Amino acid sequence: MRRVAVVVLVVFGVASLSVMGASRAAEQAKPAGTWALYVPSQIPWKPGPSSLAPGAKMAILDGDPSKEGFFTMRLLLPDGYRVAPHWHPKVERLTIISGTLNLGTGDRFDATATKPLPAGTYSSMPPKMTHFASTAGETVLQLSSIGPWQVIYVDPADDPRTKQR
Q1: Residue 33 has pLDDT above 80, yes or no
Q2: pTM
């Protein structure tokens, strides 16, 4: 009986070591994760993307909008900032952090046809939904999507990338 108990203990011990080893190997195969933590006063603001007119600032919080995969960025837009009618190939998810984003839909900028989105508002827009925006007060919005992120202007003449900066 003791012999059986010893064999059972050895088998369980070897099995436990095998499971632990497999688990450690799986952990080592994944890249080491890092904790992304941004308190408002420490947001790493940089000049906005070239797809937006000068004056915008951005901070990449997670992922890389230029590459395939999920990303999150924040945009800081000054009072009265305007974004001409455009669309994105993938879903765009916005959360208004502060200020007011006046958001409208359609192929023509019409300030009277916008809906004011105050701080705390969430919006999820499907791919290719044409929209435009302006701000009331300095506005911070958080944008999440799947990269690569693209801004396609309805009128190519509105694209800041075609203008001198």
Answers
A1: no
A2: 0.78
**What is the domain partition of the chain in residue ranges?**
1-33, 40-162
| Cβ neighbours for 64, distance < 8 A, ≥ 6 positions apart | 71, 147
Give the contacts of 76 (CB within 8 A, at least 6 positions apart).
Answer: 45, 56, 57, 58, 59, 138, 139, 140
Chain center to CA of 127? 15
3-state secondary structure of 129: coil
Helix (H, G, I), strand (E, B) or coil at 158: helix
Residue from 79, 123, 119 nearest 97 by CA: 119
The rounded distance, in Å, linking the Cα atoms of 116 and 113 is 10
Contact call for residues 119 and 96 (beta carbons, < 8 A): yes
Average pLDDT of the chain is 84
Amino acid of residue 72: T
- Helix, coil or strand: residue 27: helix
Residue pointed to by tokens 């004011």: 116
Query: What residues form DSSP beta bridges with 125?
Result: 92
Second-level CATH architecture of 40-162: Sandwich (2.60)
Q: Can you give the pLDDT at residue 28?
A: 32
| Structure tokens given for 122 | 């969430």
